[in-house]
DNA sequence: TTTTCCCAATTGAACGTTCATTCGGTAGGC
DNA sequence: GCCTACCGAATGAACGTTCAATTGGGAAAA
C-alpha cells in the first residue's frame, strides 16, 4: 500500500467521523477530541491534515460535493426522450440523498450556516451545475418553459432535497407512487 | 406600563438579540455574554427567563413560529377564485420571509440542526398547517391534483423558502416577473 | 548489504482560552 | 419584610490547539 493511500485513508476516516458526529450533534456539539476518537487517530493528527476545525468542516463540504458530483453524472442515456430522462434524473438524485443521509444533513446544516459565506466553492455549485446543464437543453429545445436557468435548477434541486428530507424523517411515507407524484408535480410545473 | 409588558420587553430584547447573532455567527458562534450585551441586559438576567442556552433557542423558535402564524393568516379573500387566492397566498408567504431574513435563516439553521429533534412543536408545524388547510379545499373541490396533502404542503412551502433564500443571497435577481414565474411553476405542477 | 540519517506521520498530555452557568447581592414595588 | 427582577464578577468545565517526544520507512552513505 502506497504512502498516499494510507494518507487518504486517515483523511477519509477523519472526514467520515466528522460527518457522522456533525449530523448527530451539530457543529458545536462535535468536539475535536470525539472526532479523533471515532476516527481512531490522535487529536494532534487531525491538525496534521487540517489547519483548524473550521478548515476541516469546509474541506469536508468540498469532499462531499465531489463525491456527489461523481455519483450523479453517470447513467444518463441521451438517446431517450427528454421527459423520461428528467424523471430518471430526478429520481437518481433523490436516491443519492436518501442513501447518503449523513451527507444530506451535513450539507443542509452547512449551507444554512455562516460557514457557507466563507466557502470558496460557494459560487460554483457543481451539483447545481449538473442539473442546470441538463435543463438547459430542455429549455433550448422548447420542451421546458422559458425561464431563468439558475432559478429553475434551484427549484428542481430543492424539490429533490425536500422530498428526501421528508422521506428520511418519515413525515410522509415515500413509496414509488409518491416519488412519481412529486417528480410529476415538478415536471408539470416546468414543462412548456 | 404593566409588569407583564416590561417582562415582555426584556424577553423580546433577548430574543431579538439572539436572533440577529445566531443568523450572523451560528449557534456555536453566539456566546451568551454577547446575547446579553446586545440585548442590554446582564448575563444572569437571561437565566431568569430561560433555563439554558438550549432552552432559549428552542423558545425563540417557538416565538418566531407564532409571529409567522399571525402574519400569514390575514388578508385571504375567500370570495375570489382558488387560483388567484393561491398566487396571493404564495407571494404573501414569500414576502414575509424576505422581510424577515433573520427569522428565515434562524429557522433554516434550526430545523436542520439536532435542536429540532428535541423540539416539542416538531409535529405540529402550524405554518405548514396553514398551507395545508388552504390546499385541502383545493384538492376537495377538484381544482388541485389528488395527492398526499402533507407532501403537497411541504413542496409548496419549500418552494417559497427556496425562492426567498435565492432572493436574499442575490444568486438570482427576483423581480415581480420571476416571482410570478416561480409561483406559476408550482401552480402548474399541483393543479388538476 | 548494512548502517546511518532524515523527515513525515503520529501521539496524547498539557495549555490557555472561552463560555455557559451560578450566586451573592441590590433595588424597588406591594 | 417579602418577593420578583436584575446585576455582573466569579467559577469551573469543556474545548480547540500546541508541542515535545516517538516511530518507521526509505534514501543516502559506507
Automatic annotation (TrEMBL), chains A, B:
PROSITE patterns the UniProt entry points to: HTH_TETR_2 (PS50977)
**Which residue stretches, if any, does this entry annotate as coiled coil?**
none
Q: What range(s) does the HTH tetR-type domain occupy?
A: 8-68
UniProt cross-references to InterPro entries, sorted A to Z:
Homeodomain-like_sf, HTH-type_TetR-like_transc_reg, HTH_TetR, Tet_transcr_reg_TetR-rel_C_sf, TetR-like_HI_0893_C
Q: Which SUPFAM superfamilies match?
A: Homeodomain-like, Tetracyclin repressor-like, C-terminal domain
Q: Which GO terms describe its molecular function?
A: DNA-binding transcription factor activity; transcription cis-regulatory region binding
Top-level lineage group: Bacteria
Give the annotated DNA-binding region, as residue ranges. Answer: 31-50
What keywords appear on the UniProt entry? DNA-binding
Record has Transport as a keyword: no
According to UniProt, the name of this protein is: TetR/AcrR family transcriptional regulator
Organism for this UniProt entry: Adhaeribacter soli
Q: What is the lineage of its organism?
A: Bacteria, Pseudomonadati, Bacteroidota, Cytophagia, Cytophagales
Amino acid at each position: 500500500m502506497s504512502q498516499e493511500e494510507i494518507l487518504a485513508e486517515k483523511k477519509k476516516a477523519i472526514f467520515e467521523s466528522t460527518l457522522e458526529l456533525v449530523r448527530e450533534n451539530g457543529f458545536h456539539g462535535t468536539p475535536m477530541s470525539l472526532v479523533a476518537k471515532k476516527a481512531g487517530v490522535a487529536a494532534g493528527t487531525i491538525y496534521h491534515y487540517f489547519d483548524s476545525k473550521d478548515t476541516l468542516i469546509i474541506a469536508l463540504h468540498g469532499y462531499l460535493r465531489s463525491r456527489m458530483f461523481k455519483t450523479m453524472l453517470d447513467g444518463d442515456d441521451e438517446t431517450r426522450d427528454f421527459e423520461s430522462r428528467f424523471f430518471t434524473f430526478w429520481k437518481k438524485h433523490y436516491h443519492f440523498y436518501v442513501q447518503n443521509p449523513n451527507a444530506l444533513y451535513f450539507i443542509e446544516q452547512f449551507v444554512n450556516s455562516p460557514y457557507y459565506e466563507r466557502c470558496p466553492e460557494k459560487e460554483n455549485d457543481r451539483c447545481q451545475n449538473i442539473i442546470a446543464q441538463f435543463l438547459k437543453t430542455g429549455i433550448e429545445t422548447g420542451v421546458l418553459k422559458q425561464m431563468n436557468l439558475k432559478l429553475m435548477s434551484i427549484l428542481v434541486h430543492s424539490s429533490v432535497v425536500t422530498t428526501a428530507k421528508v422521506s428520511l424523517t418519515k413525515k410522509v411515507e415515500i413509496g414509488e407512487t409518491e416519488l412519481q407524484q412529486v417528480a410529476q408535480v415538478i415536471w408539470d410545473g416546468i414543462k412548456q
